[in-house]
Automatic annotation (TrEMBL):
GO CC terms, sorted: membrane; mitochondrion
Protein family membership: Belongs to the peroxisomal membrane protein PXMP2/4 family.
Source organism (scientific name): Biomphalaria pfeifferi
Transmembrane segments: 108-128
Cited InterPro entries: Mpv17_PMP22 (IPR007248)
GO biological process, one term: mitochondrial ribosome assembly
Protein name: Mpv17-like protein 2
Compartments it resides in: Membrane
Length: 202
């Protein structure tokens, strides 16, 4: 009994602090900053997972690229405010959780925001790498279509859940959990897919 009381005395304050911190971080005052930080951290995590996977796959012969991770972090930093305002605007434009409202939101997300986010990803990476217009256009041709199909397969079911079950202030948080998978795939498609295509053509 005493052990249980001691554990409760230890856990309860920690849980209270966590609850208070969560309320502050997801309050309207700090939500933009929280969502931006989440997007940046998750983007980096996705790239680290993908790089580590490729390193293991290649018998540890590959070296971790901090430059590549920094590029992905820049994308996450830029993407955070975009997705934050997208969910707010979308809910104002199409409020409610009826089947019709959810399907409209999913379609708008897939056919408006998805192309935007893919374009943002490729453009920011292109700018950081100093790519010219022709090279950037070529990169779009090679990877944008595949990214969109990947996006559709991941986000269509994910957003059905998001728009029906998740309160609006937590949608970017949920989005980022799903993005951990998407960002890992994005990182692979942008940085490794072309490399393997070239190797296959040799």
């Amino acid at each position: 009994m005493r052990l249980f009381q001691r554990l409760s005395a230890t856990i309860c304050p920690t849980r209270c602090h966590f609850t208070k911190a969560t309320k502050v971080l997801f309050s309207s005052r700090f939500l933009l900053y929280t969502n931006t930080a989440l997007s940046t951290v998750v983007s980096v995590a996705g790239d680290l997972i993908q790089q580590n996977y490729q390193r293991i796959k290649n018998d540890n012969s590959r070296v971790w690229s901090s430059e590549r991770t920094a590029k992905i972090a820049a994308v996450g930093l830029a993407f955070g405010p975009s997705v934050h305002y997208w969910y707010i605007g979308l809910e104002k434009l199409v409020p409610g959780k009826t089947l019709r409202a959810i399907m409209i939101k999913v379609c708008m997300d897939q056919f408006i925001f998805s192309p935007y986010s893919i374009s943002l990803f490729l453009i920011i990476i292109g700018i950081i790498e100093g790519q010219g217009f022709d090279l950037l256009k070529n990169q779009f041709k090679k990877t944008a279509g595949l990214m969109f199909l990947t996006d559709m397969s991941v986000w269509t079911p994910a957003q059905l859940v998001n728009f029906y079950f998740v309160p609006i202030k937590y949608r970017v948080l949920y989005d980022n959990f799903v993005s951990l998978l998407a960002d890992t795939l994005y990182s692979y498609l942008r940085f490794d897919h072309d490399k393997y295509d070239l190797e296959d053509n040799d």
